[in-house]
């Protein structure tokens, strides 16, 4: 963590504003300036350091905590990684609750990632039918070494086909809809999260934080994950099988 | 929740972009258009409905989960309330982890609020010395019926003086720094959150979710709070005195 967000922000917000308006020439100049001046969030998304890249997909109607719970945990490791917000287009993307996040990169312009995260939310009901997004997520998932979904983000991953034959879980209240998006997936009803090879899938909303800490433990060690959880004063549920919300929603397998 | 974020987004993002560039005349036209066309997040921040207004303060270097954990919980009640992101200026504001949120309203243009939320993060180290922000938060806190801080957001609230004589808590790792910002506050070392009159203050980062559910219970009833927690598959710590992170950081009172 550092206290220098302000230096980065000027370049970042001006660039986002200009890009959105399509003032490409001015934006390119600002981008170069911002990267030189700060080496901050956006500058660091480009080449030039050895940090991991954690990419978070967003779309209109994403669930706030699906995105920012995991990014809180990964974001505590800014000495080791950089976060990249990815979407079909640059600009702003609004959550189902209203607040909007700035997109760092369009899918077509995504850097090589170490971790790809796919959130859920009511917007997934539309996005499972968005062929461009499904193809882009599939391409990113196939080439990224660690891939994780939160909540109904598993429905999007399932639609890409990359989970076929794998064990996976998803939101317990939307279980019937989400699992119908991937009939060849081995869906697990009672699980806080499921790890199968390079794929992690978590249950509803809050479960993304527990899963992210498990993924951080895999990548950086258990001591680091514990330090991140304690720093966030978060009571980490470390047991992937502890899931009271399955029975609460009539699921028990 | 609904699936219509996309309708709102076009007006929202164009307005944010234009406002940031200071193209006020065009922005005003777009704002009116967006409000008419959508009645969505931004339109609803204006008069014309009976929904509660929940205002979240942001500043460069805010902590992601301090902001979006509580907004996840309040955001599940969009049939009853609207979220308004507030900052010193409109445009984008970057978190300490990198991702940036769009500001709905500058402090000077804030609507009447029912709930004011003040997050923490490394940016607080700078903002406690920002007289304009402290004065704006003080004015909002004095006229808002329910006021809450998350993590080191309590340091900002304390600096305004509104917590003088009240019981309050804050982040346990940054306890010495944060409490020094309010020598007349009755700081509580061991607490997940503290309620004193209209003021709620929570411990570090994740504690904001537990406190928000308690505030939702106060505003809308315990059944609603339980429904929100279960919908988020969140294991709500309902006990304000259950705080393992005090002892972990050498605090025990």
From TrEMBL, chains A, B:
<dbReference type="Pfam" id="PF01965">
    <property type="entry name" value="DJ-1_PfpI"/>
</dbReference>
<feature type="signal peptide">
    <location>
        <begin position="1"/>
        <end position="34"/>
    </location>
</feature>
<dbReference type="InterPro" id="IPR002818">
    <property type="entry name" value="DJ-1/PfpI"/>
</dbReference>
<dbReference type="InterPro" id="IPR052158">
    <property type="entry name" value="INH-QAR"/>
</dbReference>
<keyword id="KW-0732">Signal</keyword>
<feature type="domain" description="DJ-1/PfpI">
    <location>
        <begin position="52"/>
        <end position="217"/>
    </location>
</feature>
<dbReference type="GO" id="GO:0016829">
    <property type="term" value="F:lyase activity"/>
</dbReference>
<dbReference type="InterPro" id="IPR029062">
    <property type="entry name" value="Class_I_gatase-like"/>
</dbReference>
<keyword id="KW-0456">Lyase</keyword>
<protein>
    <submittedName>
        <fullName>DJ-1/PfpI family protein</fullName>
        <ecNumber>4.2.1.-</ecNumber>
    </submittedName>
</protein>
């Amino acid at each position: 963590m550092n206290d220098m967000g302000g230096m980065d922000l000027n370049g970042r917000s001006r660039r986002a504003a200009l890009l959105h308006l399509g003032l490409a020439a001015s934006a390119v100049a600002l981008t170069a300036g911002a990267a030189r001046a700060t080496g901050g969030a956006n500058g660091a998304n480009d080449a030039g350091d050895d940090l991991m890249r954690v990419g978070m997909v967003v779309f209109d109607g994403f669930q706030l905590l699906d995105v920012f719970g995991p990014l809180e945990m990964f974001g505590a490791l800014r000495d080791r990684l950089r976060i990249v917000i990815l979407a079909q287009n640059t600009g702003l993307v609004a959550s189902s609750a209203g607040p909007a996040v700035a997109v760092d990169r369009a899918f077509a312009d995504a850097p090589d990632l170490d971790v790809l995260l796919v959130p859920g939310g009511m917007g997934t009901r539309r996005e499972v039918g968005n062929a461009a997004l499904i193809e882009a997520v599939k391409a990113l998932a196939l080439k990224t070494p660690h891939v994780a979904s939160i909540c109904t983000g598993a429905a999007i991953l399932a639609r890409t086909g990359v989970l076929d034959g794998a064990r996976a879980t998803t939101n317990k209240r939307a279980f019937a809809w989400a699992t119908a998006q991937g009939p060849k997936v081995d869906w697990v009803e009672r699980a806080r999260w499921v790890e199968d090879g390079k794929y992690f899938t978590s249950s509803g909303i809050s479960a993304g934080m527990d899963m992210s800490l498990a993924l951080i433990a895999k990548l950086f060690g258990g001591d680091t994950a514990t330090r991140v959880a304690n720093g966030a004063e978060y009571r980490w549920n470390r047991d992937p099988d502890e899931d009271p919300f399955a029975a609460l929603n009539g699921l028990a397998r």
